Automatic annotation (TrEMBL):
Belongs to the prenylcysteine oxidase family. The lineage of its organism: Eukaryota, Metazoa, Chordata, Craniata, Vertebrata. This is Prenylcysteine oxidase 1. Residues 128-498 form the Prenylcysteine lyase domain. Keywords: FAD, Flavoprotein, Glycoprotein, Lysosome, Oxidoreductase, Signal.
């Protein structure tokens, strides 16, 4: 890490980044703000969009957020026994500054930390088990992989340093019209290249061995994205950053951030499913025609529609994820873009683990590993197996050893059969299964990533998931879309798709 990024980070940590020195053109010279904005979907993306749209457009605009299901989307919890547990997005990186900013703004504390311990399972036995002693882990890894582990951390760090630039750009109000331009602004051609090739190609190119990829990297991509090292290099780096220390979660459940942002943004939640969006043109008093978006929506009591100046789609436009018809647009907007979402089934089991399943002779009473990752072996039925803690950690909580009945979380590509459960657990008293179309099925190279701008004032937030899917990515995209909507509304092109921002802003800090 060079001193310059160090100081940038230090500033970011001090929280100076969101007090910012964004010199806004005085609002008087701007045209009237929009009257009504619709956001479709109340996951972290849609609720963060509502938050940033309020920030950009001020208190006068009415913001409606449509959501037929529970607020939170892929951030969700289920109750098992007396406690609630995360079934979807669970961990947040310490440098995910938007998520951090949200909880500070909302006054929600992070969840109390319970130390974790990792192991790797090859389908027969545990090939690696983290010790409580840092030096032992270090020596074990050094013995088997030389300095690969350290080099991997440095590689991830170098990508993270560039990634962090987005916070400065957004603080100064800069926005981007495509995923490619956003990535390019952060990491130049290098980011476009790693986004367009597999993690495997990228890391082999960086000099990592196939053995290291199979034994260390693949287990990490499998637990985070349910996929192999053939995901793109960018999401791969995000995945590896997700294996660093200092990960956190939100006390009481990550989805609390979504309901908090909705409340804070003073948006109205409309519990209905959007069925179609069409463009309507109307002559206006002052001369030129203006267009509006008609949003049609349905709930149990029937269907209705309303007109909006701006619409933000904050759900994936993909098969199985949503089904929205766009009519009257030229060129046409598809309901579904090419590419599919990958299935990950989350199974929570309140039960007792069968230690022999892991091929270990360790005593269950001494087995305190929390995360068991798996290598990519033929016929392996699970992606990972973790001992998990409630969303709110009770006082005096200590993670119980494997000899106790406790809650385990299994990620698998298919639902687990009774036979498979019986192989893994000696006994159980409850099981909860959540099948997710969890994240894109990453298959680089890409022909084209979906656009952020679907039509003049119709935006698409989840396009960025094709670079990487994570809570923070949705939050970054939400802020980008809010800035874009603002600048385009007021025809301020100076903050859209600017080149060389990194060099130009260097003097500003
Ligand atoms: C099992 C799993 C584990 C994960 N682990 C992590 C992790 O540890 N860390 C991390 O950062 N990320 C993780 N992720 C990814 C993260 O959860 C997602 O990237 C993020 O939550 C996406 O948020 P979103 O708001 O963009 O989309 P969503 O949460 O999918 O929100 C979209 C919303 O739109 C609604 N909707 C759909 N159609 C319509 C319609 N027609 N009208 C109105 N509303 C509609 C949906 O009901 C949904 O609520 C994980 C995901 C899964 C599934
Ligand atoms: C535990 O797992 C082992 C190895 O897979 C299996 O042979 C054994 O039958 C299992 N024990 C029980 C009680 O299910
Ligand atoms: C990614 O690779 C494909 C095929 O090699 C190419 O057509 C496309 O333009 C590339 N995209 C980017 C952003 O580099």
């Amino acid at each position: 890490m060079n001193p310059q990024t160090l100081s940038l980070r230090a500033l970011l940590f001090l929280g100076l980044w969101h007090t910012g020195r964004r010199s806004l053109a005085s609002t008087s010279e701007l045209k009237d703000p929009p009257k009504k904005i619709a956001v479709v979907g109340a996951g972290i993306g849609g609720t963060a969009a509502a938050f940033y749209l309020r920030q950009e457009f001020g208190p006068g605009v009415k913001i409606d957020v449509f959501e037929p299901e529970v607020v939170g989307g892929r951030l969700a919890t289920v109750k098992m026994g007396d406690y609630e547990y995360e079934t979807g997005g669970s961990v947040i990186h310490p440098l995910n500054l938007h998520m951090k900013h949200f909880i500070e703004k909302l006054g929600i504390p992070p969840r109390k930390d319970v130390p974790s311990k990792m192991a790797i399972f090859d389908g027969k036995e545990l090939t690696f088990e983290e010790s409580d002693w840092f030096i032992i882990n270090f020596l074990r890894l050094l013995w088997r992989y030389g300095f690969s582990f350290l080099r991997m951390q440095m590689w991830v760090e170098s990508i993270l340093d560039k990634f962090m630039r987005i916070y400065q750009y957004q603080q100064y109000g800069y926005s981007f019209t495509t995923v490619e331009r956003l990535l390019h602004a952060m990491g130049g051609d290098g980011f476009l290249t790693i986004m367009n090739q597999t993690l495997e190609e990228t890391m082999i190119g960086e000099g990592f061995s196939q053995v290291f990829l199979n034994e260390i990297v693949a287990p990490i991509t499998r637990v985070n994205y349910g996929q192999s090292v053939r995901i793109n290099g960018f999401v791969g780096a995000v995945s590896l950053a997700g294996a660093e220390s200092g990960l956190w979660a939100v006390d009481g459940g990550n989805k609390r951030v979504c309901s908090g942002l909705l409340y804070h943004s003073k948006s109205e939640l409309i519990p209905a499913k959007v069925t179609s969006v069409s463009v309507k043109v109307r002559p206006s008093k002052t001369g030129p025609t203006t267009s509006y978006y008609e949003v049609n929506y349905a709930d149990e009591s029937g269907s209705a529609h309303a007109l909006y100046d701006i619409v933000v789609i904050a759900t994936p436009l993909h098969q199985g994820k949503s089904d929205i018809t766009f009519s009257g647009f030229s060129p046409p907007i598809p309901s579904h873009y090419p590419g599919r979402y990958h299935q990950t089934v989350t199974t929570l089991v309140h039960g007792m683990l069968n230690m022999s399943y892991l091929g270990t002779s360790e005593h269950a009473s001494e087995f305190t590993v929390s995360d068991i990752l798996t290598t990519d072996t033929k016929g392996s039925m699970i992606n990972s197996l973790s001992s998990i803690d409630p969303v709110h950690i009770p006082a005096d909580y200590k993670r119980p050893p494997a000899s106790k009945t406790k809650v385990w979380k299994v990620f698998s590509p298919q639902p687990l059969s009774q036979e498979q459960l019986k192989e893994m657990f000696l006994s159980w008293d409850s099981v909860s299964e959540t099948p997710w179309l969890a994240y894109p099925s990453y298959r680089p190279p890409h022909r084209r990533t979906p656009p952020f701008i679907l039509h003049n004032r119709l935006y698409y937030l989840n396009a960025l998931e094709w670079a990487a899917s994570a809570m923070e990515m949705s939050a970054i995209s939400a802020r980008n879309v809010a800035l874009l909507a603002h600048h385009r509304w007021h025809s301020q092109t100076g903050r859209i798709d600017q080149e060389d921002l990194h060099t130009r802003l260097r003097g500003e800090l």
